[in-house]
Amino acid sequence: MVHAKVVNGCSHIEFCQYIEQLSGQFKPRNLFINSAWLNSWATSTPLPTLVLFFNDEGLIGLVFVGSVLKKNGPFRWHHALVNQSGIPEHDQVWVEYNRIFCAAENEQKCITALIEVLNQEEIDELTVSLAPTVSGWIKATEKNWYTEVENCFGAKVSLTSISDELSYLSKNTRYQVRKSAKLLQENFGKLLVRKARSAQEKLDYFDLLSNLHIEKWCNSEFGSGFNNQIFRKHLLTLILDYPDNAELIAVYAGSILIGVSLNLIDEHHVGFYCSGINYNIPNKKIKPGYILHTQMIKHYKSLGKHEYDFLAGYAQYKQSLSTEVYNLKTLRLTKRNLRGTLIHLLRSLKQLFFKLKQKTKT
């Protein structure tokens, strides 16, 4: 029997002790829900509510559950989120492959225990964002919650199934990559992949990445995370304190910087988290983003990694450079009470209106 314990106001020291205790029980194969990522997040932001899971032998898992009061005119409801706080500035360090931090064989029991707690709380809506699977959540909530599932595009490269010459690419993509590489090497010098190793190199590469990212995204809808001190502190803690879990890679043509990437690492898996790309190279025929990724794909293949994951979010370059596409799933649960039913009905009507609007356009 697994039961859940809600802990409010957990200190960072206490949290680290829980993580250390659990890390001795299992080895998570997850780029995000691991001790390095969770500890880094815990050092950079006030912790939301922590839920601990116990069986007869002791602690077996944990998860953060943030909660916010949402408003729409006079309508109010309580919204909970798994491994997020609900505060946009705190959640700009997004999480993917979202799940409870526990051994795989205990996950369903922990989900069920969490839902039993939330059934008794004043929570009307629960979101599990960008999860690899949501079947366990649906199983635990089918009696008392409405469910809605949204798919999010992801793409990756199987490094064990491709050649060093990237012959898996389409003819057009391969031509663009080769042409860009040729122009760069003719004008600036040999393509080089460099990893930041010392603490000072990591800080220098981080500044390069930050400046390029801000230049590209500062005027976009959500802006650049590198203008957010919580985002910066989380990533700096991750790359400085957990070198086995995150690293900075720069690609150069001679002395000209092409781009810098922050990548998440586990034993066989690489996740492309974010990058800063030099779009000021004086030749519009050069595609620096393609060069950054293809050089990293070759680099990680040479190191014996099995997979290069572009992570979630559609982009044409991901489609073009990948060998496989997949979906992460965002699950929205609304409780079968008055407020939850209203939320579910209003969202269903909104989606229906959007579909009808799109249909009339075509």
TrEMBL record:
**Which parts of the sequence belong to the BioF2-like acetyltransferase domain?**
171-319
Q: What is this protein called?
A: BioF2-like acetyltransferase domain-containing protein
Give the organism, scientific name.
Answer: Alteromonas mediterranea (strain DSM 17117 / CIP 110805 / LMG 28347 / Deep ecotype)
Provide the taxonomic classification.
Bacteria, Pseudomonadati, Pseudomonadota, Gammaproteobacteria, Alteromonadales
Q: Which domain of life is it from?
A: Bacteria
Pfam families the record matches: Acetyltransf_6
Q: Which SUPFAM superfamilies does this one have?
A: Acyl-CoA N-acyltransferases (Nat)
- Please name the InterPro entries in this protein's record: Acyl_CoA_acyltransferase (IPR016181), BioF2-like_GNAT_dom (IPR038740)
